[in-house]
Amino acid sequence: xxxxxxxxxxxxxxxxxxxxxxxxxxxxxxxxxxxxxxxxxxxxxxxxxxxxxxxxxxxxxxxxxxxxxxxxxxxxxxxxxxxxxxxxxxxxxxxxxxxxxxxxxxxxxxxxxxxxxxxxxxxxxxxxxxxxxxxxxxxxxxxxxxxxxxxxxxxxxxxxxxxxxxxxxxxxxxxxxxxxxxxxxxxxxxxxxxxxxxxxxxxxxxxxxxxxxxxxxxxxxxxxxxxxxxxxxxxxxxxxxxxxxxxxxxxxxxxxxxxxxxxxxxxxxxxxxxxxxxxxxxxxxxxxxxxxxxxxxxxxxxxxxxxxxxxxxxxxxxxxxxxxxxxxxxxxxxxxxxxxxxxxxxxxxxxxxxxxxxxxxxxxxxxxxxxxxxxxxxxxxxxxxxxxxxxxxxxxxxxxxxxxxxxxxxxxxxxxxxxxxxxxxxxxxxxxxxxxxxxxxxxxxxxxxxxxxxxxxxxxxxxxxxxxxxxxxxxxxxxxxxxxxxxxxxxxxxxxxxxxxxxxxxxxxxxxxxxxxxxxxxxxxxxxxxxxxxxxxxxxxxxxxxxxxxxxxxxxxxxxxxxxxxxxxxxxxxxxxxxxxxxxxxxxx
Length: 589
Known about the structure:
With about 600 residues, the protein is an alpha/beta fold. The chain contains 15 helices and 27 strands.
């Protein structure tokens, strides 16, 4: 196995600072923007030619420029860069730490469930107005109620409103009418419409998806502006993509309209990175320990496990298609405090570790005291441990071991909780059938900056074998670089009205065929997908197609089927372009 992590290579040859000359072949760039570090890699012919790990500063542009400058050294021809792919934990971190913008909800659920069942994480105003499952108006919108809602939101200083109707994906007229009315009264407010965020049914999930899209959009646009400026300043004009939660990608220019799709971009990147760095067909638990969060994922038989229910944020499900991942608020920069005689690690980050000049003790300081990392100043790390343990009569090493044990226990518990969810996934059950017995993966692969210090103890708690592959600190950037670009098309057909709609294009037309069935719906969706692929100039890269959703609903009147509704979503196939070899040009990290 040429690319196996189990090959016995000399470590200096594999990870040393010796610079290998570029071939020079086609180059690929992957960049992962995390809450603590921004990682970047330059790949050529499946090998890492350069890598960098730089602090993520408040001025993101400076971090991106520094990362580019470290991997694209003098003499590297930027015109040979074929593709740049970004991943980011920004959206995830905002949501996990609840640092997103305040958004009010204005919803039109219509008749059905009791309004008491709707319990969303913000101020919510319910107004009359309903569209039925066919897209027909059954209750008109009451604009006087809209005015009351807007007055309440204004009094509470809301400036962002998410507007969602139950069947707005079938007819968006009510949402558009409310938005038009809102803009007439408050033109400087931002309004997010449910039908633009998700075309799927399931009203509560669409409400949560729309709320989060609205709450994170402005910060995401700031991220995009920094990326575009950094690329322009370094004269990089290759196609640029952002990694989605399901391991697919979006063209960067299109992504602001679908920012919510990047909600688990970081965990997806680490999963693809492990897939690229381990032998084909491996089954592993992925534990990516960053500064702000730890991301968990599962690879079964060489393929990342896909969630059948959509991304879960705290106790809420969304319509975001995602790998079966979880981002937990615990990392190397989490705050440590003494509470009575206990030392607690909180799910909060207040800056860099104390050993790097930060304000509070962190698990990274504990690792530094125990010699499990070389980051930062050892004396400051010891000072941080003494701040916690001195009043308790504990040595610095005793405090550090307590902190590391706390973190490992926390992450191991989260992995065990995830196993109960993973085992409910259809793909996991198929895998178990193929194993011919009930079994759990026995390997834990650790990546991210904190992996070296924690993964052995985490694996021991799970009864598994630990593996830290080469390039583990920049695995996310590698996962982004090797992600196959993807595009999708969502088709909706009403055969009784002989109308079809392509949601991504905002296009609606009459059906040309009188005898229309499910197979023809899939073919029509594929035709439009290939049109989109040609639009973005990706004909050579995107040839295989997967059907990610297909639903059929019979329209019955007087006991007779008078038509059908078809919902079909097709996407160019996700995956990685290639596995990564273990030759290294320089240690830019």
